[in-house]
Amino acid sequence: MTATAPGVDVIALGEAMVEFNQARAENPHTWVQGFGGDTSNMAIAAARLGARTGYVTRVGNDTFGRMLVELWQRERVGTDGVGVDEDAPTGVYFVSHGASGHEFSYLRAGSAASRMTVAALPLDVLRHTRVLHLSAISQAISASACDTCFAAIDTARAAGARIAYDTNLRLKLWPLARARAIVFETLRSVDWALPSLDDASRLFDSEDPARIVARCHALGARVVVLKLGSAGCLVSDGTRSERLQGERVDAVDATGAGDCFDGAFVARVIAGDDVFRAARFANAAAALATTGYGAVAPLPTREAVERLLAERVT
């Protein structure tokens, strides 16, 4: 496995899976193999955009687990934090496409990642990162994974890292009441909250972006970037708030766009941008991620994002 260099920029924690994406209308019974998992997508996106990243998870001792490790090696994502479970499989999921958009079907119950435990956390990895990124999905896959996420936050914060958190909501994994309790508690320890409007409207029982941002701040999040899909995002640092318009592209598949936004935002803040400039860059990166199929393949490079932003200026 590829070593995670001391002092990496970003460690992401969660579950990665092998993806099977339904082919287009000309052959709907064919499935194209790819990769997914929101935090893995985020780590790869940040790496393509210039950040030094690593991943913390567990995979099965199976073909799919080995495929994921090979993916991270290709994408320059460190794997010192990746454990191999001899008794549980790597998760997989299927993406189908219809008139109402894309639908996800998961085969992840009892997966290796869901068996993450506090005792098995790679503490040295967590103590040598500038940012720890995780999501509500990382917490929802099992009670032990949820405990592991909170322990990882405590370890990383104690070592001086900042915490980035996506409230990514999957109600097939847990009931709304538990999701709210866990997400709200996590927001108390978060430097950068990165919710999407779809998820946050259910968590906060409101579709008002300004109110959602205010609630995140009230719970403790220092910076809030509310993702609004193709409409852009609303950014707030607690004293200043700015609405940034989305970038117009020929979108074909939104799978992984929010994860790309997270990776781009964190990569640019680490590079020295303020949160508003970083969010503008992330808007463009997420837009480009919708111009191809699957979660990983269309994740853009820094050059591609800068090219799109330059086109908008000229």
Question: What would a concise description of this structure say?
Answer:
This protein has 314 residues and is an alpha/beta fold. The protein is built from 11 helices and 13 strands.
Average pLDDT over all residues = 93
Helix content: 25-40%
Share of residues in strands: 15-25%
Cα-atom Rg, whole angstroms? 18 Å
CATH class: Alpha Beta
Strand order across the largest sheet: 5-4-1-8-9-10-11-12-13
Explain this structure:
- By secondary structure, the chain is α/β, with parallel strands linked by helices.
- It has a single domain, classed as Ribokinase (UDP-N-acetylmuramoyl-L-alanine:D-glutamate ligase, 3-Layer(aba) Sandwich).
- Helices cover 38% and strands 24% of the residues.
- The strands form two sheets. Strands 5-4-1-8-9-10-11-12-13 form a nine-stranded mixed sheet, with helices on both faces. A four-stranded mixed sheet has the order 3-2-6-7.
- Helix 2 links the parallel strand 4 and strand 5.
- Helix 1 packs across helix 9, helix 9 runs antiparallel to helix 10 and helix 10 crosses helix 11.
- It is globular and about 50 Å long.
- It starts with 7 loop residues before the first strand and ends with a helix.
How would the blueprint of this fold be written?
Elements: E1 8-13, E2 17-22, E3 31-36, H1 38-48, E4 53-60, H2 63-74, E5 77-85, E6 92-98, E7 101-107, H3 123-126, E8 129-135, H4 136-140, H5 143-158, E9 162-166, H6 176-187, E10 192-193, H7 197-203, H8 209-219, E11 223-227, E12 233-236, E13 241-244, H9 257-271, H10 275-289, H11 302-313
Helix pairs in contact: 1-9, 9-10, 10-11
